[in-house]
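Question: Send over one sample?
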Amino acid sequence: MNLIEYPDRELMMLALADKVASQLRRALEVEDRVTLCVPGGTTPGPVFDILSGLDLDWARVWVMLNDERWVDETSPRSNTALLRNRLLRGAAALAHLVPLYAPAETPEDRLDELSRGVRAALPLTVLLLGMGADMHTASLFPGADRLAEALAPDAPPVMALRADAAGEPRITLTAPVLRAAMHCHLLITGAEKRAALERAASLPETEAPVRIVLSNATIHWAP
């Protein structure tokens, strides 16, 4: 487990954005297209703000969420709406968004269509993940209805999951996709999540799904 500790969150966000941008630039030197995969929620917002203003060949960058709540962009709980407001603006407005939501009553109604888009964007060049205090990452929640399937080596790239802790139905990338990322970063803040991270290292993946990436992730932590 490669853990980098920062004295404060501002410094961490600056350093992480610089690292992500550097990895994307290097990949663009040898690839026609690269994929950046990011979490929702408010924690990574400052990273998005920094990245959106950086000089990258954004027209060759595909951007995708780790997971999405099954709500449309008018909802305050839409990760896609947050992504548009914080990352896909300024210079980064030229990036191509790979959707994880399409209008339908349930995620299963549009899963095949969304899966085709995700498959076209693989492998992930740079993966940025978050983690909850319950040790979930993406929408791989402990106790989710199909968690074992989503953690399996032969899981499809995208699955619909439901969990009491998740609220709405979720659509999420699965363990094989997350493990296969070329570069993986895990962003966490605060003492509670630091303690959860340390517990996760000794728990089975079904109890601590974040463990699926701990062996190859660079973990960025600030108080």
User: Anything to note?
Assistant: The mean pLDDT is 97.
